[in-house]
Records
---
Amino acid sequence: MNQLFTHEGIRRTVFGPGCSAKLAEEVKLLAGSRALVVIDPHVLAAGVAGPALEALGQAKIKYETYSAITREPEPAEADEAARLGREIKAQVVVGIGGGSALDLAKAASALIANEGSAVDYVGLDLLKKAGPPVICLPTTAGTGSEVTFTAVFTRRADKFKGGINGRLLYPHTAMLDPKLTVTCPPYITAIVGMDALTHAMEAYTSRAATPVSDLNALAAIELIGDNLRQAVAHGENLQAREGMLLGSYLAGLALAQAGVGAVHAMAYPLGAFFDIPHGEANATLLPFVLRHNLIACPDRFASMAYALAELPEDLTTREAAEACVAEVMELSLDIGIPQSLNELKVPQNQVPAMAAKAMTVARPIANNPRKVDAGDLENIYREAFEAE
Ligand SMILES: [Fe+2]
C-alpha cells in the first residue's frame, strides 16, 4: 500500500428515508433560486421524486426539468441539457435518477460554464471552470455517480464510449433517500448492486488503495453482502434499501479515491460494442476477474470474504480468499445475474477486439492488482464464455 495519499471529494452528504423532501433547503444553502433538474423520465413518470420537486415549488425556486435521457446517454444529451441550463441561468443543477441522469447532471453543469460540447472534454482534467454546484439524488443503489468525478457517454453511431473526468466534476451534495429506490425493479437492483460491489472490491484491491478507501470499501462490502439479496427479493424492504444505498455510497467514495480495475476495463467494450448496460457487464464479469486476480493479494481477498459473508474463523488465508470468489458467485447466482457472456449474446469471435479495447482503458488496467496484458484479458473473456 502506498501511504502517500490525497483525499478529496464531494462537499456534503444528506442521508435518510424521506430526506429528498428537503431538496429546496439544500438548493437555498447554495444560494440558488433557479435550478436545472436533470431527471430520469421513468423516475419522473413514477412520481417518486414528487416530494422533492414539490418542495422546490413551495420554496419558490424556479426550475426546468430535462428528462430526454437514454439508458447510456449520448454526448448530445449533455449538450442539450446544458443549453437549457444556460437559457434559464441555472444557479444549481439537480440530478435525480440512476447513473445516467446523475452523469448528465454533472456534465450539464460543466458545459454551462465551459464552451463547446461534451465530446470536447472527454479525458482527464480538461475542464477549465467549475459549473454551478450539483446536487445528486440517486434512485438506484449502484453507480456511485453521486460521489465520483466522472460522466460517461456512449455514441452509438460510431461505437464511441468515453468519459469527462476531473476534479471540477465532483457534485457538491449527495442526497441519499432510500425511499427513492424502493420502486427500482429487481433485475436493475441486482445489476447495479453488483456494480457497487465491483466498485468496493476493485477499490479495495486497487494498487491506488488508501487507508481511507480501504475503510469505505470494506464497510460497503459488508453492507452489500447483508442487504442485496433482500433488496432484490422485496423492493419495499426499506431497511435493505437503506443498507444498499449506504453501501453503494461508501463503495463510490472508495472508488473515487482508489479507482477501479480490470472488471471495469473489460466491461467497457461490452458497452461500446454491444450496448450492454454498465452494471450488467460488470456484474457478469466480476467473478472471472476476481479468480484471475486472487494470487496478487490473497490477504485482501480474505478480508473481503469475511466482510461479505459469515465464514468459519479458522480458514487459512488461501481458503478465505477462495471463499471470497465462491461467495460472489453464489450471490450472483441467487440474484439472477447472467452467468456467462453467452447469455448476454456477445459474439465470441470478438474476443481479441474486446481485449484490445479494454487495454486502452488505461487507469483501471494500471490499478488492477495483477498485471494484465491483452492475452490475459482474452483468457478471462473466454472463461466467461465457457462458464455455464
Ligand atoms: Fe461501475
Note: Residues 256 and 370 are 20 Å apart (CA to CA).
---
Amino acid sequence: MSTQIKSNPVAGVQEQTLTLLVRQVRFEGRGINSYELVDPEGAPLPPFAAGAHLDIHLSGGVVRQYSICNAPRERHRYVIAVLRDERGRGGSKALHEQLRVQDIVRVSRPRNNFRLVEGARRVLLIAGGIGVTPLKAMAHQLDDAGIDYEMHYCAKDERSAAFAEEFEPMRASGRLHLHFDGGDPSAGLDIRDLLNAPADGEHVYYCGPGGFMKACAEAAQHWPAGTVHFEHFKAPERGSAEHAANDANDSFIVRVASTGQEIEVSKDQSIADALLEAGVTMETSCCAGLCGTCKVRYLEGEVEHNDCIMSDEERVEYLTACVSRATSKVLVLDL
Ligand code: FES
C-alpha cells in the first residue's frame, strides 16, 4: 500500500494518507453514486469503526469528507456514497465528474467522530437522505455484534433511496423501515412519535439534512444524557439558531502556550488561518467544524464553539480552530 506522511510539527501529529484504487462505481439512487476504494495491490486497509469518514483529496486541492458506509468487518475495501449536490460547494459535483473506475485517489486514514458507544441495550438509527451512509455502517456493525437495533430511513421517494438491493434483507427482517414523504416532511416519519418513549438502555443516532436534524434534536430533548448521538453532513447556516452570532465576531488574541507567541485573530479570520499566517502549522480539512482535524486543547479563555461534532464535555477542553471564536480577549492554546 502506498502511503504519504504529512507532519504537523505543532501538534506533533503525523497523518498518513492512502493511495487507493477506484474499483467500482455504482448507481445507488437518484443522484447518488457509491465508490468502492481498494488497495491497488489488494492489501488489507486500515481498520475502521462504523461512523468513520475519509477525507477524499480531489484535483485543485479540494478535500471533502465522506462517511464509510460498508461493514467495518470488511478489511479489503472502503465504500462511500455521494449525492451530487448542485447547490453545494462543488465537491460532490467534482467527485461525480472526476472519479472513474481504475482511477487512483488519495484519501486520509479513517477518522471517527460518530462512534457507536458501548453498552447500549437497543439502538435506534434514523437517517434522512444521504445521511444514511454512516448509519448503514452502524447497522452492519450492530448486526455483526448481535445488538438489537431498528433503522428508519427517510427519503423523498423510492428512487431517491440508496442501497435498495443491499437493504432488502434488513427490510424483509423488519429491522429497516423506509419512509417516503414525496418532498413534504410532514407527510413522512413522525419523528416526535418515534422518539416519544426511550427504552431503558436505548441510544439513538441520527444524520440528515438541516430540517431533519432539528426535528430529531427537538424530539429527543427528553432522552437521558449521553444517549443521543448525531452527525451533521453539512454545517448549519451561519446566523441560524445553532450558530447565533455574538461578540465573538470581534478580533481577539491567541497565545501559543509553548512559545508565548501572541497572534491576533481578526474578525474576518479563523483561528486556524491566523495561526497559519503567523507560521504556526495547523492541519485543517473541512474548515466547517465537521471533521475534527483542527481540534486543539485550550487552556484559558472563553470559547464560542460553532462546531457540529463535539459533546459538551469535550468543549470544556477542546475547540475546533476552523470555526471556534473567543468571547474573551485572550485564548491560550495548548500548542
Ligand atoms: S477542519 Fe474540520 S473541524 Fe476544523
Note: The longest strand covers residues 13-29.
